[in-house]
Recover the amino acids of this structure.
């Protein structure tokens, strides 16, 4: 008997094997059909989110302020409304959209790169590493981390965590996906324990509260000045990953399939992990720890449009942006006049959805 050989297509599927059907009828709408309505929905969601808060601003006024600042053609609004809309709420809402899009694209990339449906920006310990260095700054002062600010220290912590995880997951000079997840989870527990120790020993109740609020995620410190870097990072990394969608398809199909398509699996995997970790570090530095976005959004979008990253990646970014903008609005209005940490709401909403996804996958 001769051994049957299998060839693969350019998107990583074995030749002759049909794509799994998605949706009830198995039909997938083209990207050009789905993306424009989602983009319009994002714009509408942003405008509504800007109008909602402790002081409500009519949606018409929001549109006037935005038109006045962006085009100079709108009718100028009152000074107070202009201040609320342009300087206070719009930077926060846009940061929520940027962080949501970034976390979604990182989660999508990691799930394909390590071929693990549980992979997300925080499973690899990057968030926990950032939390440790940020907590040192908040409780002990910037001198504890070479004079760095909280955001800069969080980014450095994320980088160090990434280096540690990659080092521990290597065997015979290659990164092993299963070891990557195990190393990430283990280091995440280690960094979280060290962070708890720092909080316990600080003796400063106010600092401990600030650390806890930051670890659970918050966009309350958003401003135009801290929006530029994460927005640029998401655009650059997102654009780079769009070019890599065929490679992601190949990696998602398995190392053998990727090798047969000429993908240098080890080198490409390292490069994608580094890029994803760097973007995670930037996002964590401005928003703290926001979980479940990078885990849930890719699964939900994949459920509708299938596993092809040429559609999955851009749509996950749009859905992630819309989702986090909505969650941030809930954080601002659920317990007025106080504000909920955003990570609490994403966990409360995300956990049931993930359990539903698990049950659905077992039933299919």
């Amino acid at each position: 008997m001769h051994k049957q050989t299998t060839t693969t297509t350019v998107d990583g599927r074995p030749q002759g094997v049909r794509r799994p059907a998605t949706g009830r009828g198995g039909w997938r709408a083209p990207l050009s059909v789905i993306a424009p309505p989602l983009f319009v929905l994002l714009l509408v969601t942003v405008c509504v989110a800007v109008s909602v808060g402790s002081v409500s601003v009519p949606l018409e006024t929001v549109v006037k302020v935005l038109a006045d600042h962006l085009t100079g053609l709108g009718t100028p609004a009152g000074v107070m409304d202009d201040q609320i809309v342009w300087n206070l709420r719009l930077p926060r809402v846009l940061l929520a959209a940027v962080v949501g899009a970034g976390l979604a694209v990182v989660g999508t990339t990691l799930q394909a790169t390590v071929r693990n449906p549980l992979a997300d920006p925080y499973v690899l310990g990057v968030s926990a590493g950032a939390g440790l260095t940020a907590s040192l700054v908040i409780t002990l002062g910037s001198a504890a981390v070479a004079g760095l600010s909280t955001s800069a220290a969080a980014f450095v912590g994320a980088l160090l965590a990434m280096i540690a995880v990659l080092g521990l997951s290597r065997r015979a000079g290659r990164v092993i996906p299963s070891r990557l997840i195990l190393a990430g989870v283990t280091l995440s527990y280690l960094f979280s324990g060290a962070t708890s120790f720092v909080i316990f020993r600080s003796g400063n109740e106010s600092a401990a509260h600030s650390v806890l609020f930051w670890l659970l995620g918050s966009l309350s410190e958003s401003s135009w000045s801290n929006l530029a870097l994460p927005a640029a990072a998401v655009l650059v990394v997102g654009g780079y990953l769009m070019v890599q969608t065929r490679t992601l398809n190949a990696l998602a199909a398995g190392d053998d399939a990727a090798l047969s398509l000429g993908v240098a699996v080890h080198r490409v995997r390292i490069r994608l992990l580094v890029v994803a970790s760097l973007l995670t570090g930037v996002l964590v530095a401005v928003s703290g720890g926001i979980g479940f976005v990078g885990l849930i959004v890719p699964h939900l979008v994949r459920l509708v449009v299938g596993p092809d990253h040429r559609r999955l990646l851009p749509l996950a970014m749009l859905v992630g942006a819309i989702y986090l903008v909505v969650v941030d609005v809930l954080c601002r209005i659920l317990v007025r006049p106080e504000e909920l940490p955003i990570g609490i709401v994403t966990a409360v909403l995300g956990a049931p959805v993930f359990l539903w996804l698990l049950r659905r996958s077992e039933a299919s």
User: Anything to note?
Assistant: The beta strands are 170-171, 174-175.
